[in-house]
Amino acid sequence: MQSQSLKDNSKLSRFELAILVLSATVTITLVSASSPLYPYNPWDDANCFFTLGRGIIHGYVPYRDLYEQKGPLLYFIYALAALISEKSFIGSWIAECISASLFAVFSWKTAKLFIDPSKYVIAVMPLFLGIVYTTGMFNFGGNAEELCFPLLTIALYFGFKAIIKGDGLPANKEAMFIGLFTGIVFWIKYTFIGFFAGFCLYILVLTVKRKSFLRLWSLVWRYVAGFLVISIPILIFFAANKAIGSLWEAYFYNNMFLYHSGVKATGLAAIPVVKNIYIPLISIASLAKEYPSYGIMLVFSLISLMFTGKNHRQKTIGLFLITFALSIGVVFTRMVLIYYYGYILAYGFCLVLIPVVKLLNYIEKVSKRNPSFIKGFAAFGLLVIYIFTIIADKNMYLMFKPKDYLAQYRMADTINQTPDAKILTYDVMDAGFYTAAGLMPVNRFYCYLNIELTYPAILEEQNRLIEEGYYDYIITTYFCKAEWDNYELIQEETVFCIDYTGEGFLEGFKLYKKI
Question: d(Cα 183, Cα 186) in Å, to the nearest integer?
Fold first, then answer.
């Protein structure tokens, strides 16, 4: 069967595109600590990525010179952000706005595949984005999940469009884009590729069932070509810097065999095969309990599949469920549950728009006697709920605060009294101390990571250098019990924070100076 040129009835008007991009940009600006409305993004994960990005533009090679655990493409994205501003997260904010805009655009296009919305129903999109980006999993902004799930939404749109407007198979150009997205996601965090594995399995089953082997080959080589467009430059970079071994060790081997491997599975989680179903399901249930808005969106996403139309419901359900099942099956494989892992599943939240748009269309239809009043009332109501959603976001406490509100900048004032100071964050992740002080790490293992117990090289190097008096300053957590004969405590700082659960607490840091 030859490739079809699919007519895209979900094409957006300029008005729709402007509303979607504006809604995404305003939402990210209000809720992400990377935005200009905030003094700084204090999240340790984002700062680890940013330090790696800053390192790249200063000639450091990820993994070889600075050790971290995510994929190299994430660090290259943060390197671009550092080129925009090395002292702030403005570049990250721009990347987040672009990512959220893509999610908004293709969520709306997905809804339009199944229902023709009235012109002003698009007013629901700010509220939709507000709900998606104010869940506690978002934290302060800038994590890998946030940047990746919009790409999954685009791929899902391609799949649904092929089912509704074509023969069930994506067009050749779209197959190449899906391969491109697979490459991007694989080199940011390879545990996200479960979605694409499900998508490819769906295509394989469909083409084999039809015996369309030439069509399958046409899609396969374009998909692989898209993947290689991303992969080859990355591999060339590491090969040119003689760091392929470091890439393999840090990004693949250590993540697969050492990360959280110290936690022993018990009960059903210890039974082969059963654990592959039990752990993902119990993880999703735990996240839904912790974040009710996330749980509600997840449930409604599944329910919304029933509104995709009788003629193609079976295929749309099949495509979504197989990508969803493999997504959670690859992401949730360990007993230790990291709270933001589930955020990658937000790609399917676009389905919630289908019944919502149908409902708003119906309300407008039955209100012909006074349509202007109904439209205005509905728009006002959506706006009010959106405002309350944003105000309730946990990051609001940090908005418009001065930089010296944060311990990072207060300690930076002390550190900068020593020219070209050598510093280390010990027993604590990099929460922005290097960036606040305008310094770069001076050794490969520059901060605490969740792999220290199973990868002793980190602490061994740090302790050896501390004993030698290599650092001018050591920053550690308030609860660190380490004491050093050649360093003295000179400063303690506390700052009020709200964590990913929405609970407030005092975070404390200690600064040691070499005697």
Answer: 5
Q: Which residues contact 275 (CB under 8 A, 6 or more apart)?
A: 265, 268, 269
Q: What does the alpha-carbon distance between residue 185 and residue 145 come to, in Å, rounded to a whole number? A: 9
**Residues with pLDDT less than 70, the chain:** 1-8, 260-265, 368-371, 373
Contact 507, 495 (CB under 8 A): yes
Residue 3 confidence (pLDDT): 39
Are residues 343 and 421 located together in one domain of the fold?
no
What integer pLDDT is reported at residue 131 of this predicted model? 97
Mean pLDDT of the chain: 93
- Let me know whether 390 and 414 are in one domain: no
335 and 444 fall within a common domain: no
**Residue 161 shares a structural domain with residue 282:** yes
Tokens of 423: 């510093």
Residues 271 and 413 in one domain: no
* pLDDT tens sequence across 477-492: 999 988 899 999 999 9
Closest CA to 406 of 89, 71, 54: 89
Cα dihedral across residues 161, 144, 242, 250: positive or negative: negative
Decide if 281 contacts 337 (C-beta within 8 A).
no
CA distance readout (Å), 483 to 69, 121, 351, 439, 449 = 28, 62, 54, 24, 20
Using an 8 Å Cβ cutoff, are 10 and 109 in contact? Answer: yes
| CB contact at 8 A, 439 and 469 | no
Q: Do 175 and 294 belong to one domain?
A: yes
Could you tell me where the DSSP H helices lie in 115-212?
Answer: 125-133, 144-165, 172-186, 194-210
Number of separate domains in the chain:
2
Structural domain contains residue 378: yes
- 260 and 336 housed in the same domain: yes
Using CA atoms, how far residue 252 sits from 184, 256, 327, 450, in Å, is 16, 6, 18, 15
Range of the domain at 18: 14-397
